Amino acid sequence: MARPIEVNDGNFSREVLKADKPVLVDFWAEWCGPCRMVAPVVEQIAREYEDKVKVCKLDVDANQSTAARYGIMSIPTLILFEDGKVKNKVTGYMPKNSLVKKLGIG
Q1: To the nearest whole percent, how much of the chain has pLDDT over 90?
Q2: CATH number, residue 74
Q3: pLDDT digits over 35-47, tens only?
Q4: Are strands 54-59 and 77-82 parallel, antiparallel or unpaired?
Q5: Omega into 4 within 30° of 0, i.e. cis?
Q6: DSSP label at residue 11
Q7: How many domains does the chain have?
Q8: Which domain holds residue 47?
Q9: pLDDT tens-digit profile of 34-78?
């Protein structure tokens, strides 16, 4: 049963940019209400699409360097990385089906 992997400034390159398949990163913070709303959706995606995409979470408060590098101004922001590059980006909450379609995961 796949679960999102916690990533940080130190392991972001290894876990996300050098991954051998697409990686969805949830940029979030503990105090963020919409982040808590999207968390179960992100967990469902991790389980249902584990063969297609690796799912990670990055706490923007604890990892400001990586958040700044990707211009994270609002959270939650979900970014799909492919071959180390940003492929798609979504900001804010949306239901799973809409999120999967918008990011191009399914």
Answers
A1: 96
A2: 3.40.30.10
A3: 999 999 999 999 9
A4: unpaired
A5: no
A6: T
A7: 1
A8: 5-103
A9: 999 999 999 999 999 999 999 999 999 999 999 999 999 999 999
